[in-house]
Amino acid sequence: MWNSYSTAGPVGITAEIITIPGGDGGETHAYHARPITDAPLPGIVLVHHMPGWDEFYLETAERLARHGYEVICPDLYCRFGHGTPDDVTAKVRSEGGVRDDSVVADGAAALAWLRARPGHNGKVGVMGTCSGGRHALLIASRVRGFNAVVDLWGGGVVAKPEEATPARPVAPVEYTADLEAPLLGIFGNDDQSPSPEEVDAHEEALRRAGKSYEFHRYDGAGHGLMYYHTPQYRPTQAMDAWNKVFRFLATHLKA
Amino acid sequence: MCTNIATSSPVRGVGMGADGWFPLTKATVGYDHATHSEDEHAVLIDFTNYDIGLHARVAVELDLESARALLAQLQDVLEQAEASGMR
Q1: d(CA A195, CA A27)
Q2: I want to staple A46 with a disulfide (CB 3.0 to 4.6 A). Which of A73, A178, B17, B56 is the partner?
């Protein structure tokens, strides 16, 4: 639960930008956040959203670290160059977006990096918002070894064939049979992508395939309900959702 | 939602950025998440020169109504320019 630490000894964290092996064999930047502790730690691969490797993601990594996770958040746009997150995102947009295969490869590399960390407890989750939610699900479906996946309002999980692009050739729902990790989904009922109908379709695919999942859908909220830096922020729904995220992660990564 | 709606084309002109005027080489027009305007989505227009760097960028975010009005203005001015015969 958020804000439930003991004031007798709240844990500190360290956080910094480092370089780790990327999915293409080269080096990529990543934000690394972890609690200051000698205790074994579960890991989380945090997958940033379309607006880039931005401050929201650095702060989200720190939040997860304060809740007991070693977090690695790779810069999926690292190969496009460097500048402000807005400028980098504009360049990525001008080139048709980051390729799914590149993101999956970076996710696999981040998983391997976490599993090799000293003090790792053997459990790793993957989590993201918006396109990062879609990519988190895609990574968990195409890469073996994740123990939990959190999709926060990922659009395009269910897509029509005509919506495929060279960068995004296959909708993640097509990989449902391959998903091994339990899935948590958080959605706003006013969202247009994923629409409630698309969430229904995804849920039906998971149910038919016998997958472990839990979906939570909020009234009075749309896309980006946790984005406290935007008008889409819905504080009541967001904090309820955060507590569902913390409970889900603890169940699957700390037990 | 991430629409992934975007198209790019080469351009010739100059733009005013944070460091002054610079030559433009590329225009990208998209419709996707707004990052600075109040709207959830916006028409995103970027004039850039990546030979200089990622910072060489003139960017605007417009709502749909404003973008339509801008398009009409551009069309009107282009027709007047061509009718004038001046180059």
Answers
A1: 37
A2: A73
ipTM of the complex: 0.91
Let me know if residue A7 belongs to a domain.
no
- Measured CA to CA in angstroms, residue A52 lies from A37, A56, A128, A135, B23 at distances of 30, 9, 12, 13, 26
What values do phi and psi take at A25, rounded to 5?
Answer: 90, -10
Domain that holds residue A217: 13-254
B49 touches chain A (CB under 8 A): no
For residue B1, is pLDDT > 70? no
- Please report the pLDDT score of residue B40 as a whole number: 87
Question: Which whole number is the average pLDDT over B63-68?
Answer: 98
A8 inside domain:
no
Q: What CATH number does the domain containing A249 carry?
A: 3.40.50.1820
Q: Does B35 touch chain A (CB under 8 A)?
A: yes
Give me the residue label for tokens 């404003």: B66
Nearest to B54 among A88, A131, A192 (CB): A88
Give the H or E element holding residue B34: none
- Give the minimum alpha-carbon distance from A230 to chain B in angstroms, rounded to a whole number: 8
Q: Does residue A42 have a cis peptide bond before it, meaning omega lies within 30 degrees of 0?
A: no
**Looking at the complex, does the CB of residue B18 fall below 8 Å from at least one CB of chain A?**
no
CA–CA separation, A163 vs A161, rounded Å?
Answer: 5
Give the separation between CA A32 and CA B37, rounded to whole angstroms: 30
Average pLDDT in the A94-105 region? 96
- In terms of Cα–Cα distance, which of A143, A176, A173, A177 is closest to A161? A173
A157 is a domain residue: yes
Domain spans in chain B, listed from the N-terminal domain onward: 5-84
**Secondary structure element (H or E) that encloses residue B22, with its range:** strand B20-33
Place of tokens 């607006």: A51
A179-230: pLDDT as tens digits: 999 999 999 999 999 999 999 999 999 999 999 999 999 999 999 999 999 9
CB within 8 Å: B44 and A90? yes
DSSP for residue A229: T
Number of structural domains found in chain A: 1
Both tokens assigned to B77: 């001015």
Residue A53 in 3-state DSSP? coil
